[in-house]
UniProtKB/TrEMBL annotation:
Protein's recorded name: Sulfonate ABC transporter ATP-binding lipoprotein
Provenance organism: Paracoccus kondratievae
Signal peptide range: none
PANTHER family found in the cross-reference section: ALIPHATIC SULFONATES IMPORT ATP-BINDING PROTEIN SSUB, TAURINE IMPORT ATP-BINDING PROTEIN-RELATED
One Pfam family it belongs to: ABC_tran
GO molecular function terms listed in the Swiss-Prot or TrEMBL record: ATP binding; ATP hydrolysis activity
PROSITE patterns: ABC_TRANSPORTER_1, ABC_TRANSPORTER_2
InterPro entries referenced in this protein's UniProt entry, alphabetically: AAA+_ATPase, ABC_transporter-like_ATP-bd, ABC_transporter-like_CS, ABC_transporter_ATP-bind, P-loop_NTPase
Amino acid sequence: MVIEARHLNLTFPTDDGPVHALKDVDLIVEAGDFVSFIGPSGCGKTTLLRCIAALETPTGGSLTVRGMTADAARQARSYGYVFQAAGLYPWRTIAGNIRLPLEIMGYPKAEQAERVQAVLDLVELGQFGRKFPWQLSGGMQQRASIARALAFDAGILLMDEPFGALDEIVRDRLNEELLRLWQRTGKTIVFVTHSIPEAVYLSTKIVVMSPRPGRIAKVIESPLPRVRPLDIRDTPEFIRIAHEVRESLHEGGRHD
Ligand SMILES: Nc1ncnc2c1ncn2[C@@H]1O[C@H](COP(=O)(O)OP(=O)(O)OP(=O)(O)O)[C@@H](O)[C@H]1O
């Protein structure tokens, strides 16, 4: 198993009293899974992802990533992280942005160039390495930020609503591309989203969360095949799973 959380708790002390962002969260992610966290705003999705990335420290329970503490896993460069906004440096070219983590990690120059080209090809931006971020569309920028997270070939990709700001047509295309990339690379992906169709289309496992305190309301294992054309969304099976997610979201909300 790649990620294991047991009775994970996180309470933020605030001026208005403690905020229970995560309450008794149990989660298992297996190698090669595509896991989505879905739930209403404030239910702790980002906080849980940030705990896995060792960007937050839980106040209780245990969490291991590749059998290590989250901190050790971060130091071992176990994951790439994709943020809501592409966050590319405007003064660097696309290739320059993707190369940055490799420069920081001290990869030899020739290997940097090889890896940058390989991940640019992987996200179908092979011809755009010399462009600057402002010369690319929003969807292309987000693909570049995925390439940056893939550049050092970590086995885990953590993605926090990477397509949330994009229009539906671009989002559909990027969903399809991400699925192909996941199939080609065999990576383990943990993905935060607000969108039921996005969660159902992408995931092997859908983790439905509910707020106040943030906890897991239900884990739905998807019976859909791993290879999924976009029109799978019109099948009765897809619609049934989407319905199950929606019901679980409502049930989770009733505990408020
Ligand atoms: N550093 C912090 N200090 C205090 N409270 C915080 C902090 N970070 C998050 N919270 C609170 O913890 C709860 C969970 O936040 P989190 O961002 O994980 O939710 P989310 O499900 O990702 O929401 P969204 O979908 O809006 O991004 C919220 O009530 C939030 O206000």
